[in-house]
Amino acid sequence: MPETSESCETPILEGVALTKRFRMPAGGTLRALDGASVELFRGEILGVVGESGCGKSTLARLLCGLDRPDEGEVRFSGRPLTALRGEAFRTYRRSVQMVFQQPFASFDPRLTLGESAAEALVNLGVPAPERERRIAQLFERCGLSPELMRRYPSEVSGGQCQRAALARALAPEPCVLVCDEMTSALDVITQRRVLDLVRGIARERALAVLLIAHDLALVRAYADRVLVMDAGRTVETGPVADVIDRPQSDAARRLREASLD
Ligand SMILES: Nc1ncnc2c1ncn2[C@@H]1O[C@H](COP(=O)(O)OP(=O)(O)OP(=O)(O)O)[C@@H](O)[C@H]1O
Fold first, then answer.
1. Which residues form a coiled coil (predicted)?
2. What are 237's strand-pairing partners?
3. Around Cβ 189, how many Cβ atoms within 10 Å?
4. How far is the centre of ligand 1, averaged over its atoms, from the C-alpha of 175 (Å)?
5. Residue nearest to atom 23 of ligand 1 (CA)
C-alpha cells in the first residue's frame, strides 16, 4: 500500500479535477465540487474528512457513478468511466459498491434483507440456491444470523440493518467499498464494531475502502491515509498521523481543533 500519492501503482479508483454544480431552486448554481481529486489504491482505507457541506457525499456519488461530473473525470483501474462499454462498465458497476449513512432508507421496505442482498446476484445470473448459500455466508461473516435474511428492514436494529447493508454491498464481490458516514446513525459502541468488521473484511479481501466520516477519532483509528476537503476542494492528503497530528491546511487544523474541544 502506498504511503504517498507519488506511488507508481495505478489507483483502483480515481477522481481527477472533479467539478460538480447544482442548480439552485432560487436561481444560480452551487459548486459542490471545485476541482477535487482523489486516488484510492488497492488494499487501503482512505478516510475522507471535512466540514459539513464541503462535498464529501458528492465526491462519493461521482466515484460510484451515481452522478456525473460537469468537469474532470473518474477513472477505474486507470480507464475513464466514459470510455467503459459493455462488460467493462458492468465490471466497474459490480466492483465499486457503496454503503450509505441511513441503513433503513437504503433498503426497499417491501423486500426481506436477504432478498435485497440477493438482488445483485440475480442481476449477475447466479442461480437461486447458490444465491441463498452465498448471502447466508455473507450474513454470518457480517455478524448476523442467517435467520435475519427473512426479516424486513423494520424488524431489525440500526446496527443489524447496517451489517446487512454491508453484506449486500459485498455480495457482488467488489474490490472497492465506498462508506458514506455508514456508522453516523449508530451508537458509539456499535460504530466501532461495524468499523472493526469493515476493516477485517477489507484486509481479508484486499478491498480499497473510502471511509467518509465526521469523526476524526474514527478516521485515526481505521484509515491508513486521509484526504481533507474544504469548500469543494481536496486540500490535503497523507498518512493519518501526519495529517491529523501535523495538519498543513487551515481546514485540517480546524477539524483537529474542533475534535480536541
Ligand atoms: N442534489 C443536490 N442538489 C442541490 N444541491 C446539492 C445536491 N447535493 C448536494 N448539494 C449541495 O452540495 C454541497 C455539498 O454537499 P455534500 O452532501 O456533498 O456535502 P458533505 O460534505 O457530504 O456534507 P455532510 O457532511 O453534511 O453530509 C452542499 O452545499 C449541498 O447542499
1. none
2. 227
3. 9
4. 26
5. 53
Phi/psi at 185 (nearest 5 deg)? -90, 5
Half-sphere exposure of 147 (CA within 13 A, CB side): 3
* pLDDT, tens only, 225-239: 999 999 999 999 999
Give the position, in ligand 1's atom list, of the atom nearest the Cα of 101: 27
Kindly state the cell numbers that stand for 16.
481527477
At residue 176, the pLDDT reads 98
Calculate how far, in angstroms, residue 73's C-alpha sits from the geometric centre of ligand 1.
19
Q: Which helix (H) or strand (E) holds 116?
A: helix 113-123
Strands 13-23 and 29-40: antiparallel
Considering only CA atoms, which residue is closest to atom 11 of ligand 1?
A: 32
Contact in structure between 52 and 219 (CB atoms under 8 Å): no
- What's the confidence (pLDDT) of residue 3? 46
Q: In whole angstroms, what is the distance from residue 101 CA to residue 61 CA?
A: 13
CA of 53 to the centre of ligand 1 (A): 5
CATH number of 13-106+175-260: 3.40.50.300
Question: Which residues approach ligand 1 with their CB closer than 6 A?
Answer: 22, 30, 32, 50, 52-58
What stretches in the chain show pLDDT beneath 70? 1-7, 261
